[in-house]
C-alpha cells in the first residue's frame, strides 16, 4: 500500500494542508477500492515524506484543539510530478490529479496508456488467430473475445480523451 498512497497523498496535499484524519478519509475515497488506508500506512509515509523534505507539518489551533497539519513543499510538488510520469502508477489513479499537471504531461500519459493497450490488443488478436486453428473450449475463446472487446472500447475511450484534450 505505501507505493499506492504516495501519489494520492501528495496530490491531496497539493489541494490544501490537511491533518491525519482528513487525509486518511480523503485517501480512502481515492484508493479505498484497493483496501483500507490505515494509520499504520499513512503516518509512516508522512514521516518518510517529511524526512525527504517533501512534506512539512505545522501545529494548527482550532477552537482549543491542536492539530498537526501537513503541507506539501516544493520538493513534494516535484516528487508528485515525478510520480505522475512513472509508468508503474495506475492511470486511473493519475487521472484523479490530471487538473494538477501540464497539458503536455497529461497528453503524454494518455498516449502512453493508449499505446500500451494497443500493443495488448494486438497480442490478443494474434492469440485469437492462433486458437482459431486449434481446438479450444468455448469458454476460453469467450474470455479472449471479451478481453478484445474491452481493450477496443478502452482504446476508443482514451483516444476520445486525447482528442478532447487537444481541442481545449
Structural domain count: 2
Can you count the helices? 7
CATH-assigned fold name of the largest domain: Arc Repressor Mutant, subunit A
Strand content: 5-15%
The CATH architecture of the largest domain: Orthogonal Bundle
Rg, Cα atoms, Å: 21 Å
Helix content range of the residues, please?
Answer: 55-70%
Q: Uncertain runs with pLDDT below 50, 5 residues or more? A: none
Q: Give the CA-CA distance, first to last residue.
A: 35 Å
Query: Which descriptor suits the 3D outline?
Result: elongated
Number of strands: 3
> How is the largest sheet built, in terms of strand order?
1-3-2
Structural topology:
Layout: H1 2-15, E1 18-19, H2 20-31, H3 39-51, E2 55-62, E3 65-72, H4 74-85, H5 91-95, H6 103-132, H7 138-167
Antiparallel strand pairs: 1-3, 2-3
Helix pairs in contact: 1-2, 1-3, 1-4, 6-7
Characterization of the model:
This protein folds into 2 domains: 2-99, Arc Repressor Mutant, subunit A; 102-167. It has 7 helices and 3 strands, in the order H-E-H-H-E-E-H-H-H-H. With 168 residues, the chain is mainly alpha-helical. Strand 2 and strand 3 (65-72) form a beta hairpin.
Short key terms for the protein model shown above:
single chain, 168 residues, mainly alpha, Arc Repressor Mutant, subunit A, 2 domains, 3-stranded antiparallel sheet, 7 helices, 69% helix
